[in-house]
Fold:
Amino acid sequence: MSLPPQDHEFLPPYRLLLGPGPSMVHPRVLHALSQPLVGHLDPLFLDLMNDIQALLRATFQTNNEFTIALSGTGSAGMEAVIANLIEPGDRALVGVNGVFGTRLATMIERQGGVPLRIDASWGDIIPAEAVREQLARSAPVKAVVLVHAETSTGARQPLEDVGALCRAHGALLIVDAVTSLGGIPVEVDAWGIDACYSGTQKCLSCPPGLAPLTMSPRAMEAIRQRQTPCHSWYLDLALIADYWNDRSRAYHHTAPISMLYALREALRLVQAEGREARFARHRLNSEALLAGLETLGLTPLPATEHRLPMLNCVTLPDRINDAAVRTRLLEDYGIEIGGGLGPLRGRVWRIGLMGESSREAHVLTLLGALEEIFAHHGWPAQPGRAVHAAVDIYTGSQPTTRRST
Amino acid sequence: MSLPPQDHEFLPPYRLLLGPGPSMVHPRVLHALSQPLVGHLDPLFLDLMNDIQALLRATFQTNNEFTIALSGTGSAGMEAVIANLIEPGDRALVGVNGVFGTRLATMIERQGGVPLRIDASWGDIIPAEAVREQLARSAPVKAVVLVHAETSTGARQPLEDVGALCRAHGALLIVDAVTSLGGIPVEVDAWGIDACYSGTQKCLSCPPGLAPLTMSPRAMEAIRQRQTPCHSWYLDLALIADYWNDRSRAYHHTAPISMLYALREALRLVQAEGREARFARHRLNSEALLAGLETLGLTPLPATEHRLPMLNCVTLPDRINDAAVRTRLLEDYGIEIGGGLGPLRGRVWRIGLMGESSREAHVLTLLGALEEIFAHHGWPAQPGRAVHAAVDIYTGSQPTTRRST
Structure:
């Protein structure tokens, strides 16, 4: 209980955040965070909550009334959806091809539900055909749960055909869009998604701490029809709906005011850039990065058509010492990239180009630093080749795609 | 899905926050919020997590190894403690004398536990004698759950004698210190508290969004001995212990980085002021406020010896129009105070003098504004008398207690 030695202010150094999140935060968002507080029941703050709901609807491409930012991180969004939609005994089909599918299966079990796993190798996707077969074989199924962007492997799960399949079998479609929202299309209404959650610290480029979340009327009806109350009071979406609803505003908890300031500004930046421009930027920078990395012998884990542009998961040749490179990147260059999780530990890097982190300058910086480190270790790499490969991609692209906000 | 009209930056006006939270935030804390991010696994951030644990141990007056800031608001802290310590069938004695005792009973039920309520009138406390009788009558009891500072009524629950009582009956002592921590003594080890949670937006004067939380070795052992897994994965304290533990640092979720920057700085301010000085400041400003309010016919709800200095709950004479005054305070003076909840709606005001909000200047500002509004409405009040009564208290006090940080 002695007074601890925290006698100095924490003044973080500049970090170039190219890991699996958090991503870089725009100065306008940092500025929003530092604004003085208003009360969480202040009419001005209630307006801000309305603004965020409207901005999130545009971002999720949905008309769902229940579209909010939950007061917890992306994992709280995952738990809220599972805890509210899965009752004891409910069967839920869940795709497991990485850390987050595994986590979803665990959460379903903890709610007393029965996860019916469709397993795939890490880096692969869950084939629509497998979902179709499982749905036919396992009826009744309460929900199909898929991870749109598997952050542990860099795989993009196709979703276009799953919604209709779910409706045909009376199942809800639950989608984890933690890493995808704001970087690739997430079409909640068009794809027939019933529950979709995300995190703020990925392609929305806001600090971590909130979980954007949208629920279809069908999903809200399922919550109203529950036989048992949700185990969680904090994440009870019926209560949270009454708090965010403009007509009721029933006190539930004290919203994280400063974080919501930040999210509003981050979403404004997303809207100002425009969807197509933002997605094109993410694609281009990923293409340039991968072109450079391949000259260094680093190859993407997922198949070409299933690669996420914001989470570039590349396998390491045996000669590369994972920890040594990442330590040098962080200590000498201030650059963070991510290592592998679970079975991929030590075998892959996860390089995030999310939101503000997805910039031409950042790609060139990272490739240059890697070239230098590789040369220092004497690993075969032709100096300048990686940067050159990226430059080739950029010079062949449309200038408008390369513009920064 | 049309682009919403959020075409402007949100620039909040200056508000004097004298409600039940959030409280005023020190400029140093706002500055910490606006610092650029480092990764949540960056060695620098892991050091910051250690700093926060040390600072929180000093604030909670505990040596508990498990002393952390949970990634959710104070209500998430409440839920985490209940969800981890109460298993299906467990009986828990819970004091219910306001909104938060009621909420605790609900949460116990949702975990499948059996809440044994000790009810008291709103504004009263739960007598130790009633706890003793219930414990003797209802064995076995897994936990006794008490709200130290009932934010809905302004009552301070005495806790000094309850810990020994709980140990004698093999029950854990769970304490809600959301509003008390940092404003009055909270002595976790000395009082034999096994689980204690708080919020950041009250007397710690940090924005809302985190829940400081400490658990005794006895409480952690109870978690390890659970027969069933905790329903919540997000709030599973065994997993969260492995994430915050310096030796394991097992990835669980992405910590709310910016909010933790802010909390570190807020806790440094708490330590710099010193416990006794801080508590004396809270007492003095409350005394001065109440002296002024009594000249306006507003009398405190709880008995003298059970009043919280940071949450001054006063009853309104019939002639006072609750909503009209609070609206004028907010719109004309930028001052927020709180109204009543539940059965106290329209009948009381809850005036928060928490952390940075507990300042002599703020007390005088509020009393002056109330005098003006009362005069405007023609309610009997002798102009200048309220401010004068407060000034009398201040001039009779020790000058050191009045100093600001």
About this structure: Chain A has two domains: 37-271, 274-402. The first strand of chain A starts at residue 16 and ends at 18. Residues 2 and 8 of chain A are 17 Å apart (CA to CA). The domain at 37-271 of chain A is CATH 3.40.640.10 (Aspartate Aminotransferase; domain 2).
